[in-house]
Design brief:
It contains four helices and four strands. It is of the alpha+beta class. The chain has one domain (2-168). Strands 1-2-3-4 form a four-stranded antiparallel β-sheet. Strand 3 (126-134) and strand 4 form a beta hairpin. Helix 1 packs across helix 3 (100-123).
Length: 169
């Protein structure tokens, strides 16, 4: 049994290092952009138009990505922070069992989840600032962590669909 673990360890370590090489920059970029936005648009609160469809706006989000569960009460931030830590740890642990695209997706999801969890620990809510809109219709404000989670989820879905297609052949 230990022989098997010794053989797997040289493969597992690089996979987890790659995970961390994606995860850490996502968390750092997310936290850096949020701090810049806190200084730029949150105090005093103001909206900055970047493009006709893209603004920077100050939004405090008590829920999860794109404002979901925002009205859920005081336990939502605690539950979401706990969930983010648990899911991120599980994804890190599962890295050796995942396909390559799923490993990339897992790192994106974990990086985004921990980026938002840091905000919940610091402020009790998440800093959102990206406002995409068209013809008066606005997407809920979001941040880089939300974008990373979304990209990770799309990649994960793609990997599942691709696996189904290749298993039919």
């Amino acid at each position: 049994m230990t022989e098997n673990n010794d053989e797997q360890e040289p493969v597992v370590r690089p996979m987890r290092l790659v995970f961390c090489a994606i995860f850490v920059p996502i968390v750092l970029a997310d936290q850096a952009t949020k701090q810049i936005m806190l200084d730029l648009i949150f105090n005093p609160p103001r909206r900055i138009e970047i493009l006709a469809i893209f603004n920077l706006v100050p939004v405090w989000n008590r829920g999860m990505s794109f404002g979901m569960l925002a009205g859920g009460g005081a336990l939502v931030p605690i539950a979401l922070t706990s969930l983010a830590i648990a899911v991120s740890a599980w994804l890190f642990w599962m890295v050796p069992r995942l396909h390559r695209v799923q490993r990339l997706a897992a790192a994106c999801i974990a990086g985004g989840a921990i980026g938002n969890a840091i905000d919940r620990l610091r402020f009790g809510k998440v800093v959102d600032f990206i406002d995409l809109h068209y013809a008066g219709v606005h997407w809920p404000a979001f941040n880089l962590a939300d974008a990373a989670i979304t990209i990770g989820a799309v990649l994960w879905g793609y990997s599942i669909l691709r696996e189904q297609e290749t298993s039919r052949i």
